[in-house]
Specification:
heterodimer; A: 372 residues; Butyryl-CoA Dehydrogenase, subunit A, domain 2; Butyryl-CoA Dehydrogenase, subunit A, domain 3; 3 domains; four-stranded mixed sheet; four-stranded antiparallel sheet; 11 helices; B: 393 residues; alpha+beta; Butyryl-Coa Dehydrogenase, subunit A, domain 1; 8 strands
């Protein structure tokens, strides 16, 4: 497959891009933030997402979705990134769907149709500390009666306080098991914290939460592969969103270079800025290609996907970070003001950079996957 | 089975039958590369056999039309051929400035007669070309070139000199930018073709910091060039040159620019040793190599996307400048890490153990990557102006 969008994908972009710009531009984020929104996103907007079929894009058709791939989800995520649109799309419609579709079974049958219809928000409860270390899960699920008893703490759970269900990675006797934990389960406490980008992420405590045996997603002790699918999808999605954030910041900055005058010249005439902008352009293009390659390999079910996903998260992380830093710097003083949007891009980038493994984590993974 | 699958199977079978085992070994020495030409000395029978087999099939220039020595393959078929060659680690049958640069110029600007006359010998590896662009006073500011062709009715008399002429001392013919109108800077240059054995042509290799001499100074002293031997229009050679520079950047972008596009850390871990955790036993070097590997794999994806888009007319026409910039800077970084990884062994200049100082020589050679074919700074200027549309650039 060529590494550019085919006609169907281009059409998808042509419908999603104006939708996002019109319905959820940066001013939408500001409105939520300034209104001290307690949900973390707009439920009205999520209804509009649903009318466009977006929440169920990746849900298999048998479960009421569109059965699309990561390349298509990436198109939506890039627009979400470009507009800094708050939404549960990444966690629910990409990460959770990837895990449930991979696992199949009871939980997939229950939640996938609900995600596709826009009724269910699903959170991902993976991290346990300030850094992403999915190989060191300490939350335990011990056999109790016919089911399990869940104990532990999770952090950085986006939408954790409002999600209808959380996918929780826990240690069981013989490995890792993923559980579908409903919001109203006894012993679950979500403590939402406002993050730098105005999103809400929870510290979630599981204190002797009693779960039925059928709360298991997939098979007991065999959650590793499902977790891998969840992580690969979410990381690739976060990378796609970062491409959108970086591109949005870059476009805004290049426009500013053509408007702002100092020393009697447009500042875009200065070679010192031209070269930096041109360098950034190159980095963003490379990041975009890399993310598309990861999406393509994931969609093909290729063995090379795992490596490329880490490459994509690292590369998109570096490029978007450069875009927002250069963006603020090239805007000069006004780049430091809350009034200008460029700072919001820097904030969102920082949150996405950390989500599901930062640049350093993924660079380390690339070394490991190459045997060093 | 789709047509492309069938084609892949056919290519696979053909390669299996025609690519000699010796030609599936990695390139080790300079003379492992087949450049062709009147005076080329094949290293062994397999090298010649591989060239002849590919030339007969049109696979030295798979996407050129058949009448010009190509196989007339589509972009998708060409990609499959390349993938299949890569799969069996087949060497390039023929490296050639004729294929990379003159060919595309002729395909775009040449007459039908010129295409037949010049392209077939290029495709068969019979004539080796060199490029006469830069002059001592005209580097990044190429259009200021002074080599002059005086109009003598049915021929020009060319005087002047070129510099950085790659392998001029080994080439059979030169494609050369010559000023034919001193009053007109941009529309006063003609893209000429002439035999390097013409009277008045001399070459002098330039010793580089690498200790090698891949480039020459080339002098023209009353060289007579028939007025039929030019591409495009008289005085409009700059159009051809600009097109070719874009193409050169495309070619560099398509594979050459990033250098050897494989993990650097994996190779070094063997030499360096690993710690108990199985990690390369130098944490900072490991981190730098891993960060570099991320960029290599990323650039590989970029190269694939660029070629997919370029071949189908989707790429921004100036995007090859970005590819050239990113790729050459990446390759320079690779060789800095190769030197770090090699430690004092990589300092040895001529020992047998280091294959005659292969590492430091290659490292120094890469410093030219971001100078030749347009400096990184010129690439950034072009991106700023033509892609980002920044003012006054």
């Amino acid at each position: 497959m060529p590494l550019y969008h085919n006609d169907d994908q281009a059409m998808l972009k042509d419908s999603v891009a104006p939708f996002m710009t019109e319905q959820a531009p940066v001013s939408h984020l500001r409105k939520l933030r300034d209104g001290a929104d307690a949900t973390g996103f707009s439920r009205d907007l999520w209804v509009q997402f649903t009318e466009m079929g977006l929440p169920g894009m990746l849900v298999p058709e048998a479960h009421g979705g569109l059965g699309m791939g990561h390349m298509e989800a990436g198109i939506v995520l890039e627009e979400i990134g470009r507009n800094l649109t708050p939404s549960p799309f990444l966690a629910t419609s990409v990460g959770a769907v990837a895990a449930l579709a991979k696992a199949g079974g009871t939980q997939a049958g229950r939640w996938l149709p609900a995600i596709a219809s826009g009724e269910a928000i699903v959170a991902l409860a993976i991290d346990e500390g300030a850094k992403h270390r999915p190989d060191r899960i300490a939350t335990t699920a011990t056999r109790a009666g016919n089911g399990f008893r869940l104990d532990g703490r999770k952090s950085f759970v986006l939408h954790g306080h409002v999600a209808d269900m959380s996918i929780v990675a826990a240690r069981t006797d013989g490995g890792i098991t993923l559980f579908a934990v409903p919001r109203d389960a006894k012993g679950v406490t979500a403590d939402p914290r406002r993050l730098v980008d105005s999103s809400l992420a929870s510290h979630v405590t599981f204190d002797g939460v009693e779960l039925d045996a059928d709360a298991v997603i997939g098979e007991v002790d065999a959650g590793g592969d499902i977790l891998d699918a969840l992580l690969a999808a979410t990381r690739t999605g976060a990378a796609a969103e970062m491409v959108g954030v970086g591109q949005g910041a870059m476009d805004m900055t290049v426009t500013y270079l053509k408007e702002r005058k100092q020393f009697g010249k447009l500042i875009g005439e200065f070679q010192g800025l031209q070269h930096r902008a041109a360098h950034l352009y190159g980095e963003m293009e490379v990041a975009r290609a890399t993310v598309m390659k990861a999406q393509q390999l994931l969609d093909e079910g290729s063995e090379g996907a795992k490596l490329m996903v880490s490459v994509a998260k690292a590369k998109a992380g570096r490029a978007a970070n450069l875009a927002v830093r250069e963006g603020v710097q090239m805007h000069g003083g006004i780049g430091m003001t809350d009034e200008y949007d460029i700072g919001l891009y820097m904030k969102r980038d920082r949150a996405l950079a950390e989500y599901m493994g930062d640049v350093h984590y993924h660079i380390d993974q690339v070394a490991r996957m190459n045997g060093y | 089975m789709s047509d492309l699958d069938a084609f892949r199977a056919e290519v696979r079978a053909w390669l299996e039958a025609n690519c000699p085992p010796e030609m599936r070994e990695p390139i080790r020495d300079e003379d492992d590369v087949c450049w062709g030409g009147r005076n080329f000395k094949f290293k062994n029978a397999a090298q010649k056999q591989w060239l002849d087999a590919c030339a007969a099939k049109g696979y030295t220039v798979p996407d050129w039309p058949k009448p010009y020595g190509g196989a007339g393959l589509t972009a998708e078929q060409t990609k499959i051929l390349k993938q299949e060659m890569k799969r069996i680690k087949a060497r390039s049958p023929l490296d050639s400035f004729g294929i990379w640069m003159l060919g595309p110029a002729l395909l775009q600007f040449g007459t039908e007669e010129q295409k037949v006359q010049y392209l077939n010998p290029i495709a068969r590896g019979e004539i080796r070309w060199c490029q006469g662009y830069s002059e001592p006073g005209s580097g990044s500011d190429l259009v200021s070139l002074q080599t002059f062709g005086e109009d003598k009715g049915d021929h020009w008399v060319v005087n002047g000199s070129k510099i950085w002429t790659s392998y001029a001392d080994k080439a059979d013919w030169i494609f050369c930018l010559v000023r034919t109108d001193k009053a007109n800077k941009y529309q006063g240059i003609t893209f000429m073709l002439f035999d390097m054995e013409s009277k008045g042509v001399t070459t002098k290799p330039i010793l580089l910091i690498s200790g090698n001499s891949p480039f020459c100074e080339t002098f023209f002293d009353d060289v007579e060039v028939p007025k039929t031997q030019y591409v495009g229009e008289i005085n409009r050679g700059w159009d051809v040159a600009k097109y070719l520079l874009g193409h050169e950047r495309e070619m560099i972008s398509g594979g050459g620019a990033g250098g050897d596009m494989v993990s650097i850390g994996g190779a070094f871990a063997k030499a360096f040793g690993k710690n108990a955790a199985g990690e390369l036993d130098d944490p900072i070097l490991r981190a730098e190599m891993a960060a570099f590997d991320v960029d290599v794999f990323a650039y590989r994806a970029m190269g694939e996307r660029f070629m997919d888009m370029w071949k189908t007319g989707r790429a921004h026409p100036a995007s090859s400048n970005m590819m050239k910039y990113v790729g050459t800077e990446l390759n320079k970084r690779r060789h800095e890490l190769v030197m770090s990884g090699g430690g004092s062994d990589a300092l040895e200049w001529d020992s047998e153990a280091t294959k005659g100082g292969a590492r430091p020589r290659a490292w120094l050679r890469t410093k030219a990557n971001s100078i030749e074919g347009g400096t990184s700074e010129v690439m950034l200027n072009v991106i700023a102006k033509r892609i980002l549309d920044l003012p006054g650039a």
